[in-house]
Amino acid sequence: MDISIGLPNAVPGTTGAQLVEWARRADARGFKSLGTVDRVVYDNYEPLTALAAAAAVTERIGLCTSVLLGPLRTNPTELAKQALSLHALSGGRFTLGIGLGAREDDYEASGVDLKGRGRWLDEALGRVKEVWDGDEIGPSESGSPGLVVGGSVDASFARAARFGDGWIAGGAPPDQYAEMAEKAKAAWTEAGHEGQPRLMCLAYYSLGERAEEEAKAYLMDYYAFLGEETAGYIASSAAKDADTVRQYLEAFDAAGCGELILFPSSSDPDEVDLLADAAGL
To answer: Which of 21, 91, 147, 258 has the fewest CB atoms lying closer than 10 Å?
Structure first.
């Protein structure tokens, strides 16, 4: 299983200097990819913008939106061009991870109706693929980006198989992930593909002297819309020591995950090295 790391693009108060130093260190320490999460009504950096900054200071590491909230980008042709641009600027390192999202405030602020968002995403992904496969809209010197689709319902697995290279889960525990991964693989086979899809997942970590405090402060706030009990469960489940990091890696590997992206609760770039050390990189 490949080990990846999230940028702190959605940790409130993160500075531009911290973001690019985080990217530099992740590139140097051998992580597979840099991931980003997406919000509108929050103190965060827009994912494509954050990854463009990371691309400028890195040479090797992959770049992945994990995931971008597709329906809030209402022009799929422009989204396709943005993805092509980031892919070309990074020398062919970008994967567009895309999903629906469910936070009402993000949709309201964007002037987008929550209803019909699944149908919109199906149509939009068809257009994105059309742009990428054509020769009128570029840049095209690095080819097309990778594409993974997020979600936990049957329609998401079918969507990933129809349009993507694979599927990504957001925050599922290893046992639940294993069940969903089997559904994603079944949808992949039913769609007539050979081989296996790219299978990804994200989880959270918080290391260092203030691990417990930082995980609680950030994750309770970020997931407050789910209610205190659920947000508290997410915060408590973050890996807060090296042993737990290793346990998570073993569990997700056994569950069939091909790439695990561990997202931070702090924007201190030292967290990159702490995670790399814990993961044996």
So the answer is: 91
Report the phi/psi class of residue 82: left, alpha or beta, with left for phi > 0 and alpha for psi in -120 to 50: alpha
Name every residue whose Cβ is closer than 8 Å to that of residue 242 and which is 6 or more positions away in sequence: 207, 277, 278
Coil/strand/helix, residue 166: strand
Confirm whether pTM is higher than 0.85. yes
- Read off the pLDDT of each residue in 7-12 and give the average, rounded to a whole number: 98
Q: How confident is the model at residue 42 (pLDDT cuts 50, 70, 90)?
A: very high
Q: Would you say residue 1 has pLDDT above 90?
A: yes
Q: How many CA atoms lie within 13 A of 125 on its CB side?
A: 27
Cα 177 to Cα 255: distance, rounded to the nearest angstrom: 7
8 Cβ contact partners less than 8 Å away, ≥ 6 residues apart: 14, 18, 19, 22, 264, 266, 267, 271
The predicted structure's pLDDT at residue 174: 96
DSSP 48-112: HHHHHHHHHT-SS-EEEES-EEGGGS--HHHHHHHHHHHHHHTTS-EEEEEE----HHHHHHHT-
Residue 139 CA: distances (Å) to CA of 74, 84, 145 = 21, 6, 11
Q: Quote the tokens at residue 162.
A: 């129809």
143 sits in which H/E element: none
Residues composing the chain: 281
